[in-house]
Amino acid sequence: MTSPLALLGGRPAVTATGTHFAWPPIDDTTRARVAAQLDTAISLPGRSGIVAELEDALQAYFGVRHAITLSSGTAALHAAYWAAHVNAWDEVIVPAWTFHATASPLFHLRAVPVLCETGPDGNIDPTRVEELITPRTRAVMVTHLWGRPADTGALRAIAETHDLALLEDGSHAHGASLGGQKTGTFGLAGAFSLNGPKPLSGGEGGFVLTDDDDTYYRVLTFAHYNKRAKSEIPADHPLARYAVTGAGLKLRIHPLAAALAHDQLGRLDGYLAGRAEIARHLGDRFADMPGLHAVPMPCGVIPSWYGLTLIYRPEELGGLGIERFHQALLAEGATEFDRPGSTCPMNRLSLYRQPGPLFPGHPLSHRRYAEGDFPLAEHSYRHTIKLPVWHRGEDLPLVDQYVRAARKVTEHYKELL
Ligand SMILES: *Cc1c(COP(=O)(O)O)cnc(C)c1O
């Protein structure tokens, strides 16, 4: 008798053809809006047109005084660090597990990323932050991994006690909230990506949120020299004299990306509500499945569901390795089941192990990171299987095929041992 498992010659559980998950959703209205931008402006050096419209809409959506668009999330993070006065040799505490761009711009400031162990949800563990604080610590950066808000209440208290800037990387978490407050608004500044698959997408782009005027002027100085710096920084501000050159970099968003992001922002809450429904549906169905476990969501935490993450427990499936388990899922046609790749504990990355060749004389040349430094983050990373979260009711049949695929593999795991 042949196994029903597709990996062993059976028929795949997922029969849907074509792309299973595409992001961002683009319809004819989106197409028309982006195309209209071609006839309006394709370069906007000032805060005008679609850039001003997008920034106004972001300010209203997040309830903040300033939103500044940039060319990418990486640029937004770089600008946020510089705006927060992170200087050479300063230390910034960052989650050990995040997409590296949360922290990598620090190398360009000659500042030191200090990696902090993460908790079961993959987010920075606030109980591990204080032991890392030194006289050189300037800021704490938090990522809301996979769109699940980190414990910003505890982090804010630590930042206040030690007089540190709290910064947020909201790149997974547009529209997520904690106790009714949106991620990206808890600290001095929030930096976001608008990259392709992110919950709010302009294809490429990013933005910084802040309520603080000086931080706003510094982001403009860092990323928007000349026209914007001249018109938005008050003449009597110490930065005004640098308006022509800024700090030497120009990191503007493209107006076509701004048009796409503006169109998407109007739909974001609808997307998030749809994702929440499907995440609940998936959560119910994975609840009693051996081997795969969701990390419980505390009360008051509303994620953006950038990904639904499941922790794989091999001991519940006879010790079956995650690689083979994942292969079996893919063979079932459930190709959106994914293991995190480059979004990994950063002590795995050459830049954090050996920055010297890229940044000679960088302070981290003395104290580098190595495999095994962050056992909890590394364990979670190695045992995570994630799914994108669909947002439309008509996706439910496909979602159920994915559930069937997972159930089938867990029921037949012995054949894979
Ligand atoms: C995508 C991402 C970034 C970088 O954003 P880009 O727009 O790709 O430069 C930074 N941090 C996190 C957590 C991200 O997911």
Q: Tell me the major beta sheet.
A: 7 strands, mixed
* Separate helix tally: 13
Give the number of DSSP strands. Answer: 13
CATH first level of the largest domain: Alpha Beta
Q: Do you know the CATH topology of the largest domain?
A: Aspartate Aminotransferase, domain 2
The shape, in one word, is globular
Distance between the termini: 17 Å
Characterization of this structure:
There is one protein chain. The chain has 417 residues and is of the alpha/beta class. The protein has two domains: 28-265, Aspartate Aminotransferase, domain 2 (3-Layer(aba) Sandwich); 269-416, Aspartate Aminotransferase, domain 1 (Alpha-Beta Complex), CATH 3.90.1150. The chain has 13 helices and 13 strands. The protein has helices at residues 28-38, 49-62, 73-83, 105-108, 152-161, 213-223, 227-232, 255-265, 268-286, 322-331, 350-353, 375-382, 396-411; strands at residues 66-70, 91-95, 112-116, 137-143, 165-169, 177-178, 181-182, 189-193, 206-210, 292-294, 301-302, 308-312, 384-387. The strands form three sheets. Strands 1-9-8-5-4-2-3 form a seven-stranded mixed β-sheet, sandwiched between helices. Strands 7-6-11 form a three-stranded antiparallel β-sheet, with no helix packed on it. A three-stranded antiparallel β-sheet has the order 10-12-13. The radius of gyration is 22 Å and the shape is globular. It starts with 27 loop residues before the first helix and ends in a 6-residue tail after the last helix. The model has no long low-confidence stretch (mean pLDDT 97).
